[in-house]
TrEMBL record:
PANTHER family: BETA-ALANYL-DOPAMINE_CARCININE HYDROLASE, PEPTIDASE C45. It comes from the Eukaryota. Pfam families: AAT (PF03417). This is Unnamed protein product. The lineage of its organism: Eukaryota, Fungi, Dikarya, Ascomycota, Pezizomycotina. InterPro entries: C45_proenzyme-like, Peptidase_C45, Peptidase_C45_hydrolase. Residues 58-269 form the Peptidase C45 hydrolase domain. It comes from Aspergillus oryzae (Yellow koji mold).
C-alpha cells in the first residue's frame, strides 16, 4: 500500500492544536456537544439521573464508550460509562453517589475552576452529595459552562456553572429536578448563552408534562426515555440526515435502593444492548475499608 493512502485516511482525525488551544483559552463550545435530559425523582424506589437522549452525540462516538470500574484504597468504588481516556463522566459509586453532566453554551471560562471531568471525578470520589458539593465549590467550581447533577437516595441537587457564577438547583415542590441544555437559573446579564439548542426547551417541557402523569413505578420511569414526541429532536433522539446530527448513545437509570444502574446502549426505544451495573463483594469490601 502506498504511504499516501493511510496519510489521507488520517487527515480528518488530526487535531489542529493552535485552534484547540484558542478554544480552551476563550471558552468556545462545540455546538452538538453532550446533550442530556436529566431528571431526579425523589422516591424510595430510586433517585435517578438519566441522560436522555440519554447521552446524545454523533453516532460514531458510541464506538468510544466503555464501562469502567475504578477501585482505590480508602475511596468508594466507581462504576461509570465514559469515553476511553476520560477519567470522570456519568456514573455512580459504592457509597450510593451518582452524577450526571450537561453541556451549556456560554462563551468564556472560569480560569480558577476545575476541568469538567475532574469535577465529575471529584464527585464520584465523594461519600455523599453534600461532600461533593463542598469539595467542588472549595476548588473554585467548574472552569467550563456546564450543569452537573449529584444525588443519592436521600438528597439531590443540580449545579449550573457559568463564567460569572455558580447556581444551585434544588428539587421543586413535587420532588423533581429536571434539566436539559439551557440555563434555568439566573447568572446575570453578562452570562449570555450562545446559540443554545432550540429543542432544549421543548424537551424540558415535554419531560415535565410526562412527569405530571408519572405513576411512580420503575417501569414507567424507564419508558419516559423512550418518548419520541417531536421526533427526531425527541427525548429519545434519532439521527436523521440533513436534520438531526445527534442521536441517543446510551441511557442510564440508577436505583439507589439496590445500588445498581441499568444501562441501555443505543436509543432506549430499541437498545442495542442492556445490562446492569452492580457492586460485587470486592467493591463492598472496598466500601467497608473506606468506612462507607
Amino acid at each position: 500500500m502506498a504511504w499516501s493512502k493511510p496519510v489521507m485516511a488520517a487527515l480528518p482525525f488530526i487535531v489542529n492544536f493552535p485552534t484547540e488551544h484558542y478554544r480552551v483559552k476563550t471558552g468556545m463550545y462545540v455546538k452538538t456537544f453532550n446533550l442530556f435530559d436529566l431528571i431526579s425523582w425523589n422516591l424510595p424506589l430510586t433517585f435517578t439521573l438519566l441522560p436522555s437522549p440519554e447521552f446524545q452525540f454523533f453516532s460514531a462516538t458510541k464506538e468510544n464508550l466503555i464501562q469502567l470500574t475504578i477501585r482505590q484504597p480508602g475511596l468508594p468504588t466507581i462504576k461509570m460509562i465514559t469515553e476511553a481516556g476520560i477519567i470522570g463522566k456519568v456514573g455512580f459509586n459504592s457509597a450510593g453517589v451518582a452524577v450526571n453532566y450537561n453541556a451549556l453554551h456560554l462563551q468564556g471560562l472560569r480560569p480558577t475552576g476545575l476541568p469538567s471531568h475532574l469535577a465529575l471525578r471529584m464527585a464520584l470520589e465523594s461519600t455523599s452529595p453534600s461532600q461533593a458539593y463542598d469539595r467542588i465549590v472549595e476548588q473554585g467550581g467548574m472552569a467550563a459552562s456546564a450543569f452537573i447533577m449529584v444525588g443519592n437516595g436521600q438528597e439531590a441537587y443540580g449545579l449550573e456553572f457559568s463564567p460569572i457564577s455558580l447556581r444551585k438547583q434544588v428539587l421543586d415542590a413535587k420532588g423533581r429536578l429536571v434539566h436539559t441544555n439551557h440555563c434555568l437559573l439566573n447568572h446575570g446579564e453578562n452570562a449570555k448563552e450562545l446559540d443554545p439548542l432550540p429543542d432544549s426547551w421543548s424537551r424540558h417541557q415535554r419531560m415535565e408534562n410526562l412527569l405530571d402523569r408519572f405513576d411512580g413505578t420503575k417501569e414507567a420511569f424507564s419508558r419516559l426515555w423512550e418518548d419520541e414526541d417531536n421526533y427526531p429532536f425527541s427525548i429519545c433522539r434519532a439521527y436523521e440526515e440533513g436534520k438531526s446530527r445527534g442521536a441517543t448513545l446510551f441511557n442510564i437509570m440508577y436505583d439507589h435502593a439496590r445500588r445498581e444502574a441499568t444501562v441501555r446502549f443505543g436509543r432506549p426505544k430499541d437498545p442495542d444492548e442492556t445490562f446492569v451495573l452492580q457492586f460485587d463483594d470486592e467493591d463492598k469490601r472496598s466500601a467497608l475499608n473506606a468506612k462507607l
